[in-house]
Amino acid sequence: MNDIYVRAELCLKISNYKKYYKALIAFSFLFCVCLAHAGQRGNIPAATGVASTTDSIKPLTIGDTIPEALWNLPLQMVQAGQEGITAVTLNDYKGKLIILDFWATWCGGCIAGFPKMETLANKFDHDLVVLPIGYDAAEKIRYFMQTNENGQYLKRSIYDAKVLKQYFPHVYIPHYVWLKDTHVVSITNQIDLNEANIVALLKGEKSKIKVKKDVLDYDRSKPFFANLNKTFLANMQVSLTLTRHVDGLSRSGTGGLSDDSLLRWTSFINTPLIDLYRFAVNLPYNHFINETADKSLLGNLDNDPNWYEKYAYCLEIVAPNESSSLLDLKSNVIHALNTQLKLNGRLEYRLVDVYAMRAIHLNERNRPEQQKKTLTGSSLSEIAKRFNNNIKIEKRKVVYNPIVINDMENIAVPSPSMNAYQSITTLNTYLNAMGITLVKDRKELAVFVLSEK
After folding, report:
1. In 10 A of CB 314, how many CB atoms?
2. Which residues does 386 contact at the CB level (< 8 Å), separation at least 6?
3. Strand ranges (DSSP E) for 51-163?
């Protein structure tokens, strides 16, 4: 691959791998954008009146002329508040800027973007048409329109448009295809779907929008290493592969066994640095302390739309299929990341600010009735862990919760709603009903500190 600029591979027989482990690290560096997984399914049948077989459909990309067969392709549309199906064609909207919005009822990112799409469509009503292209069947889309909170913003949608997916193949959604005049002018992700880019294209300016790229032939059933056109060598026993972003892959974590079941692999694709370190140390997000000059290293704190391009990596670990071997390997992940990224990440015990769970009621008789019962919900330690790992995105910025610890008996309580994990206030409100309160304190805890070398 042309974009690999550092690579080294070493192998070792299993009997000696621990002794020589540090010489076994294989690193590759690439660059990519991380996008949301679209879950494409099945083979796509031929479209009546368009082509005798879908094999004759040529995928289109930026700059291509839109064929007449596509302009006149019958598209089945569901409309909010109306029974039955409406047939339309792209030709009905010729002369406008057309944005095809590929979406699905299971795609959270797609659904979150509907209010924005309606705002843009209304603002440029005379010059722009947005056509949602649903993955789902008509009745499922109609039910979504009626029941989902953001369904109110979806006034219409093409459904089950498999032929359109062949003209514009992709793996991850949301996926936006921009058509203007007689050409495909852009293919984007959600970040670039904005007013400034629409205005520029309507004015006839040459598109400077970053092209969304999907790696169509990436096989998630195989290790990342194998997807780089490499295979496990017969005597390879330990390996680490580290890369920058790989353009066209979504963030994911996968794993499996080699064909002979002797090796186990774990892959993290386009994963933020903090999650790679967490794999090694198993600490909550709010137990990480960033003392580097780059305050965005462990989270997007500056509303940077290109944050993932700068701070996410791909890491794959290959080790003998033994639990002890994987534990040994995880302990060296920190060393590998530190060495290659010129960082000093380490575990320390520090005195830090916390909120400690304390009992309000001093004896069983005074506790609320719901706490006296035998409960099978969540333990207090589990609740503290979930709170500590909760990540909030506020105005596209990452926000971590303060640290909460369980400073009392680890009793079980009814599982709280997700809203309880949003802040100290909401968690304390929930705990108060259980006869528990959160108290500010200082405790010495294990934390992960990151600084420059």
Report:
1. 26
2. 378, 421
3. 75-79, 86-88, 97-103, 128-134, 156-159
Pairing verdict, β 97-103 and 86-88? unpaired
How far apart are alpha carbons 331 and 335 in whole angstroms? 8
Cβ(400)–Cβ(423) under 8 Å? no
Rounded Cα gap, residues 356 and 438, in angstroms: 5
The answer to whether residues 275 and 298 touch, using CB atoms and an 8 Å cutoff, is no
Confidence bin at 324 (pLDDT 50/70/90): low
Residue 8 within a domain: no
227 in Cβ contact with 265 (< 8 Å): no
Helix-helix angle 195-202:114-123, to 10 degrees: 40
Distance between CA 186 and CA 359 in Å, rounded? 59
Q: Which residue range(s) make up the domain with 290? A: 14-33+216-341
Residues 84, 163 within the same domain: yes
Q: How far apart are CA 450 and CA 294, in angstroms?
A: 10
Q: Using an 8 Å Cβ cutoff, are 100 and 167 in contact?
A: no
Q: Give the Cα separation of 175 and 64 in Å (integer).
A: 18
Q: Does pTM surpass 0.85?
A: no
Same domain, 118 and 194: yes
Residue 174, preceding peptide bond in cis (omega within 30° of 0): yes
> What amino acid occupies position 26?
A
Nearest to 175 by CA among 39, 308, 54, 271: 39
Q: pLDDT, tens digit, for every residue of 227-273?
A: 654 444 444 456 788 899 988 888 888 888 877 777 778 889 999 99
Looking at residue 250, its pLDDT comes to 87
